[in-house]
Amino acid sequence: MSYEEKMDLLESIVKKLESGKLSLEESIEMFERGTSLAKECYETLKNAEQKITLISESEEN
Amino acid sequence: MSSILSVSQLNRYVKSVIESDDKLNGVYLRGEISNLTLHGSGHIYFSLKDDEQCTIKAVMFAGKARYLKFRPTGGMKVVVRGNVTIYEKTGSYQIIAEEMLPDGEGALNLAYEQLKAELQKEGLFDNEHKKSLPTFPKKIGVITSPTGAAVQDIFRILKRRYPIGEIVFCPVLVQGENAADDLTNAVKRFNKSKCANVIIIGRGGGSIEDLWAFNDENLARAIYECDIPVVSAVGHETDFTICDFVADVRASTPSAGAELVSPVTVDNMLMQTENIINKMSMTIESRLQNEFQRYERVSNSRVLSSFEDIINFRKIKLDLLTAGLKIAYTEKVSVERAKFAELTVKLDTLSPLKILSRGYAVAKKDGEIISSKEQADINDNIEIVLSDGSLECKVTGRK
After folding, report:
1. Which of A2, B178, B249, B261 is the most buried (most CB within 10 A)?
2. Complex confidence, ipTM
3. How many domains does chain B have?
């Protein structure tokens, strides 16, 4: 999953949690899912190193 | 030349003399345009005059006129390159212009203003056509010189703000004869391969001549046709180029361009992630708090004052239910049983054994019941079934 996909998912989890429509068990499950996703995003950002390529390399792909 | 000539013979002769003179071919002539006629065919007829009020007729044919980068107007100072010739019909001499450029100070400015007006009229700068920049670009295309300050500024800022994006670099010439073509091709390459989500095109500051490549018409059209959003980042705050107007967003400097393509920095994102974690924690905490309070409310109510009460209440309810079921079941079974007994009695009264017990008998021959004397012959063996057994008999006579 890409960073953006993870963030999108995170946001939908937060929305669901805040809606209050989930059962307590579901809420706790969502919370666990959300925190582990957030942690992954955090790590991605912390460890990001810029990649620089020439257009000729990108064009081949 | 002793004989008498016709006018056309003379004109033709002079024309040939002039046209064979190398000094009159490829002449550069400076002057001010007057008597301008833009003919419907595309030919341009005009005169050039100088400060001494000397004039020469001039024509630029449509084939050349269409390549003009500006629109000639009366009073405009120009430099013309062309060949001197004679128009046979009138015998007047003239210059056939191959090329024409605005002359002197402000000439570039004029060409710039004219191209700008033309493209604006065509709709190349229209806001409806402008694309918005992506919030999280995966790949950022950079079109600039590999040696200038601009590329360093852009890389440095992107490294600080947005290291999760990939930079796709297309090194080009940004000034000189081939710069405009180089820039145009770079935009086209990105658009063709779609190997970026946003493009910065630009260079550091310089004179109007230095920035001139960014005023190229083909470059403008390539940017207009580019499906990827383009940020123009040419020169300083005060420099404006055609590229700036046609691009989706204009940045005042290359550094500003780098900031525009990274609207959300990694620091922002880290903060955002932290906020999300906090939000989730708060939500789940308040949820748990609510659940706990609800439990307390229920367990403190007067009817059910303790947890045991709840359990007991449930147990009683269950017992009642079970008992009810049992009763229902038993009733059903006894009804069925009574019905069965009744049926048995009925069946019993109809049983053949019951009849036999009253002294009747059944006669069988070869296991089949017989009911007529015709069914047995003399000397046939038959069986007489009684209530308690049977007799093997031989028929000795019929009546």
Report:
1. B261
2. 0.85
3. 3
